TrEMBL record:
<protein>
    <submittedName>
        <fullName>Formamidase</fullName>
    </submittedName>
</protein>
<dbReference type="GO" id="GO:0016811">
    <property type="term" value="F:hydrolase activity, acting on carbon-nitrogen (but not peptide) bonds, in linear amides"/>
</dbReference>
<dbReference type="InterPro" id="IPR004304">
    <property type="entry name" value="FmdA_AmdA"/>
</dbReference>
<dbReference type="Pfam" id="PF03069">
    <property type="entry name" value="FmdA_AmdA"/>
</dbReference>
């Protein structure tokens, strides 16, 4: 149960949650953007459960391992010119009845299951050490072991030319595969790199930078068992998911994670009893605030202010006490440095706040 509890459940007493299936098809995805004018792919009531497909824009890095007929259809039927201004394949949007600007959208991520046993990491031109790595773009394909919940690199290749078009398909080529370091085992932690509500803006908003609406936060903790709170910006919220990963480190230093399609089960609720200025993450152990800015120092400052807001406005600490607590127990980390608008997250243990909220 969430520590941020509603004074009353937002579900109507007579409403029993329904389960919906939202498959990823050319008609239910939007590639590279959020848009408040998009018609919904699905309409639900607060409290409903959605089983949705999230498709990676990197399936073409190893199409024989990461694509099936349904994904191939998305790649073939969504025009390349319509994959803009961002890069991520987004499933949705989902319209949630009775959600209005000023509300919070509570998304409980219940399950995230890999669609295939393979994923791709691209050392991209937007990676943090692109120049230091000889300005070379390199793809590494990982295989997941379901029993051990680890991923192992199985082959790699230097991308021919420049990786510019989202959804580029590279045919299998054994002759161009490079040797990789043996014995590496990466913990698997499926999560969504990009998810959020439609921003209150005219026209398309790129999926690449994170912001108050959510977007490309790239926090690997946004996985099964976690709850995200997104500030609603337009009527119906218009929530979408995409950019699925099976593993990522804080920083996402090469430009991407292990990109892999996921099947996601989530429960979505409208919360009218509290507000928060930016995406707020709750896990079994932590509350996590975020800050975003092109300047990493300013992103750090924003994450700090958001944590201060959480502790004072939602847990009743004085500003002085909250500031002291932040310095002695809150951990600040770089979420990512490769999306133009950089990210910092701050986490505080739930156990420190439990008694104050009882």
């Amino acid at each position: 149960m969430s520590l941020i509890k509603p004074e009353h459940d937002s579900l109507r007493p007579e409403h029993q949650p329904r389960t919906h299936v939202l498959e990823a098809t050319p008609a239910t995805v939007h590639w590279g953007y959020f848009d408040a004018a998009l018609p919904p792919a699905l309409t639900i009531v607060s409290g409903d459960i959605v089983c949705a497909e999230a498709v990676t824009q990197h399936a073409g890095d190893a199409p024989e391992l990461m694509m099936d007929a349904e994904i191939d259809r998305i790649y073939r039927e969504v025009p390349k010119a319509d994959r803009a201004p961002g890069v991520h394949i987004m499933t949705g949007p989902i319209y949630i009845q009775d959600s209005q600007p000023g509300d919070m959208l509570e998304v409980r991520y219940l399950q995230m299951k890999p669609r295939f046993m393979y994923g791709s990491n691209l050392a991209a031109s937007w990676g943090h050490l692109f120049k230091e790595m000889g300005e070379k773009e390199r793809v590494t394909i990982y295989r997941m072991d379901d029993f051990s919940q680890t991923a192992t690199p199985v082959f790699a290749y230097d991308f021919p030319g420049k990786y510019e078009i989202p959804g580029t398909i590279t045919p299998a080529c054994d002759c161009c595969r490079a040797e990789i370091t043996d014995g590496i085992r990466v913990p698997v932690r499926p999560h969504l790199g990009t998810a959020g509500v439609a921003p209150n803006a005219q026209g398309r908003v790129s999926t690449v930078p994170p912001g108050e609406h959510g977007g490309n936060i790239d926090n690997w903790r946004i996985g099964a068992g976690a709850t995200m709170y997104y500030p609603v910006q337009v009527p119906g919220a218009l929530f979408s998911i995409g950019d699925p990963h099976i593993s990522q480190g804080d920083g996402e230093i090469s430009g991407t994670a292990i990109e892999a399609s996921l099947s996601v089960i989530m429960q979505i609720k409208v919360r009218k009893d509290f507000h928060f200025p930016s995406p707020l993450l709750e896990t079994q152990e932590f509350f996590i605030t975020h800050g975003f800015n092109e300047d990493l120092d300013l992103a750090m400052r924003q994450a700090s202010i958001n944590m201060l807001t959480l502790l004072t406005e939602h847990f009743g600490l004085s500003r002085d006490d909250a500031y002291s607590l932040m310095s002695v127990t809150v951990d600040f980390s770089v979420t990512q440095v490769v999306d133009g608008r950089q990210g910092v997250h701050a986490k505080i243990g739930r156990h420190l706040l439990k008694e104050r909220h009882a």
